[in-house]
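so the lab meeting is tmrw and i was supposed to have these ready like two days ago... anyway. pasting both below. for each one the top line is the aa sequence and the line under it is the structure tokens. i havent really looked at them closely yet so no promises
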Amino acid sequence: MNRVRRVTVAPDETEIRLDRWFRRHFPGLGHGRLEKLLRTGQVRVDGKRAKSGTRLASGQVVRVPPLPTENPGRATPRPRPQSQLQLTGRDVAALRDSVLFMDDSVIAIDKPSGLAVQGGSGQRRHLDAMLDALRFDRSERPRLVHRLDKDTSGVLLLARSAAAARKLTAAFRGKAVQKVYWALVVGAPETGRGHIDLALAKRTGRGGGEKVGAEAQGKSALTLYQVVQTRKAAGQPISWLALMPLTGRTHQLRAHCAALGAPILCDGKYGGRTAFPEAVSFESAGAGKGGIPKRLMLLAREIALPHPEGETTLRVSAPLPAHMEAAWSALGFHASKGERAADDLLSYAEGLAHSPPGTRPGPRSGPGRARHSPGRR
């Protein structure tokens, strides 16, 4: 590495110590050498001097000076690039058209299905590499503060400054964020409203891909759900669920819906063949007339959290993307029916919070199971 790099701290690196961050990205750099770089101010966080024990926040920028390879036998990996993608005029226009809300602190975009938030192995085209298109009149590059799965569409927040990134990250970490998702699932849950309490742990999926599953020693994961409508396609029930995750585990909603016995439509990773019922008329590509595109039917519909500047609540919602709009039309669902779902789930959550101990959901040491409350259809 022979030039200065500026690397954005990823959402999953929040609260990691700076020295451990360097160990993760540059295992060939010794601790003594890092301490010297810190003392001389060559390594900085958001332009300021830092110490090895400094805790990082999502969206902060680490200045990485030219580094020697201290262990010739072990190649030093390059950090995540901020931007190596040559943006076209079409890319810039599409990203700017996706903006749902913008002020001095926050940008909310409608992330399309199929666009990864961050790069991975062989993944060069991703949102993090395209954020320069959303600078607008600012010198600072927008910063990621949370993530959505590549195949999930909907509301994604970006911070427009380091200060806003710290406050937004703290809101996510402190569970001050309310998120509502819409999903089409195969089947119909036994009750119209309930909660899924199922601990999850990461596993290696087929082909080495990321996947999670129920695990006794996994991280606690809790999701509230409500059935908005159910329709039958040649006798096969397809349900529209409103989902409110109270924890933020990888693939939580996809794994929880599958555990409920109602995998998300077109989610082959967690639902297998069940996620593509023969009774449903699919279109292989595009939104053909009367057909349903074979794309994950999961939308990050709404997000609400304290605004980083002031006492107000920031609430942003995203419309149905084209592939889900085609599915809603084919099945006879009406988007207006879901408008009260967020308020209904909040009321349900408050009721659970005031339930007697032992009957309300909370962190568990075991894998848990899908549990239902006597709700309404």
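ok protien two:
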Amino acid sequence: MGLEYGSRSRRLAVVGLLASLTIAGASWDAQARTARKQAQARVIHGPSYRPPYAAIVVDDKSGQVLHEVNADDPRHPASLAKIMTLYLLFEQLEAGKLKLDTPLDVSTQAAVARPVKLGLKANQTIKVEDAIKALVTKSANDAAVVISEAIGGSEGEFAKLMTLKARMLGMTNTTYINASGLPAEEQITTARDQAILGRAIQHRFPRYYQYFSTPSFQYRGAEIRNHNHLLGQVKGVDGIKTGYTDASGYNLTSSVRRDDKHIVAVVLGGSSNSARDARMRQLIEEHISQASAQRTAPIMVETAGEDSAQAETIAPATPVPTPKPAVAGAGVEAASKSTGADQAQAPKPQVQPAKLTPVAKQSPRRARPATSNKAATVNGREAGSPSAANQSRQVEHKIGASALPQ
């Protein structure tokens, strides 16, 4: 009797222990699932976080900095990264490796890119020109991935090319992690570096640069408007790009031509679309009058080669008088608030030096002239025949006295 009672007690104890372990295991699993969900949804910056402000205004013709605040402090570029994505795409067009009507394959990786996006589907294609317009207007992240994969094979490899190109342009404090500008802790830049890029893309690709002035375009029956609210609203603004993430704040690079003067301005860390735009308007009006009407600074070009990444320049040419017709500018309705990478969260910027040879700032050397003679059309105009320097001077005279409607 006693043995039977003891055996029964031991069995009950074992059953109780197993039940306890089962309950504990279920609890641990639930806690682990909750922790994973919390980690996935965790907001890096709290609700009181405000992205730090930075700005710079550069006189393109003299190269002089007219205004700067925190111009060398690290910031997240957000969709300003797409300027470099387009720079590398324009290179492919200039070299004849791609054409404006070349169809680009849409991968699953591109199709699942986070908004803002065109809504491209895997196994579809998109023409190069439509992809360009999608980036400069809607800031479409799926189109950015398509471009990156077409050129680099993968977005990661393409980002390495972006960073290398940044070094070759003298952008010493910029590192790219992706083609879209979607949040990544190591993806950082500065206002000064973005001003360098804003000038360089015009000097190197003056014809293709004109895509940045596209007010809207039609894609599969839908009208897609440009997020840049200053186009057609501020006299002389001809581009170039907006950007937004939670960590970057509202970013904008602008190019303005008035009365033979040309400035490139960058605002990073705006608190809203309207606040950023208002600040940019103020910077333009305060500093455009200080800019030079005569080119004294060299046209910007990059070096070739990974190890000798020093910014090179070519001597400025004597201006040749040419007619200065006004560039037609269309009024742009205020675009809806940017979202995606123009709408996502990212960590606080930290400088992560790229494993590339640093670029010595302001170390002008004699440059090799551009040699590409590949032709393409931009909005019905032929591009690619003259050298980069000659194209830049032609467009400079063409657009220099432009007066877009207020």
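from a quick look at the 2nd one: The radius of gyration is 26 Å. Residues 2-41 form the longest helix (40 residues). will dig more after coffe
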